[in-house]
C-alpha cells in the first residue's frame, strides 16, 4: 500500500515567483502590449498573477500561500455563494409578496 504524505509537496515554481506587486504589474503590462498571444497564454498569465497575489497576501498576513488559498477558495468563496443565494431567494420571495395584483375593470376589461 502506497501512502501519500499530506500535505503534498508544493510545486517548486511557486518559490521562483517574484515577490512584489510592482514586478507583477510590469509583467501584466508587458503581456497586454504583446501581439499574437494565444488565449492559453493569457489564461496562464492570469493564473500566475493570481498566484503571485496570493503569495504576496500570504507573506503580508503571515498565513502563507497555502493557508490563504484554503481560506479564500474553500471557505470564503463557497460561503459568499451560499450567502448571496439566500439573499436572492429572500428578496425574490419578498418581491413576490409585495407585488400588487393587476385588477381588471369588469365593465371594459381595462387594467385599473
Explain what this protein looks like in three dimensions.
It is a single chain. The chain is mainly α and 112 residues long. It has a domain at 12-74. Helices cover 62% and strands 0% of the residues. The protein has three helices and no strands. It has helices at residues 21-33, 39-61, 65-98. Helix 1 packs antiparallel against helix 2 and helix 2 crosses helix 3 (65-98). It is elongated and about 80 Å long. The model has no long low-confidence stretch (mean pLDDT 78).
Please render the helix and strand layout as text.
Elements: H1 21-33, H2 39-61, H3 65-98
Helix pairs in contact: 1-2, 2-3
Summarize the structure.
It is built from three helices and no strands.
Structural class: mainly alpha
In DSSP terms (H or I, runs of 4 or more residues), the helix count works out at 3
**H/E element order:** HHH
Instruction: Give the amount of beta strand, in percent.
Output: under 5%
Q: Give the fraction of residues assigned to helices.
A: 55-70%
Overall pLDDT, averaged? 78
Strand count, sense and barrel status of the largest sheet are: none
- In oligomeric terms, what are we looking at? single chain
Low-confidence stretches: none
Overall number of strands:
0
Radius of gyration: 25 Å
In one word, what is the shape? elongated
- C-alpha end-to-end distance: 77 Å
Amino acid at each position: 500500500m502506497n501512502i501519500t504524505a499530506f500535505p503534498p509537496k508544493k510545486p517548486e515554481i511557486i518559490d521562483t515567483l517574484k515577490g512584489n506587486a510592482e514586478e507583477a504589474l510590469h509583467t501584466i503590462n508587458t503581456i497586454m502590449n504583446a501581439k499574437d498571444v494565444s488565449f492559453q497564454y493569457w489564461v496562464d498569465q492570469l493564473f500566475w498573477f493570481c498566484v503571485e497575489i496570493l503569495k504576496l497576501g500570504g507573506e503580508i498576513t503571515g498565513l502563507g500561500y497555502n493557508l490563504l488559498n484554503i481560506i479564500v477558495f474553500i471557505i470564503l468563496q463557497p460561503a459568499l455563494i451560499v450567502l448571496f443565494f439566500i439573499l436572492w431567494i429572500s428578496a425574490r420571495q419578498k418581491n413576490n409578496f409585495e407585488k400588487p395584483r393587476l385588477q381588471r375593470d369588469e365593465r371594459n376589461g381595462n387594467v385599473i
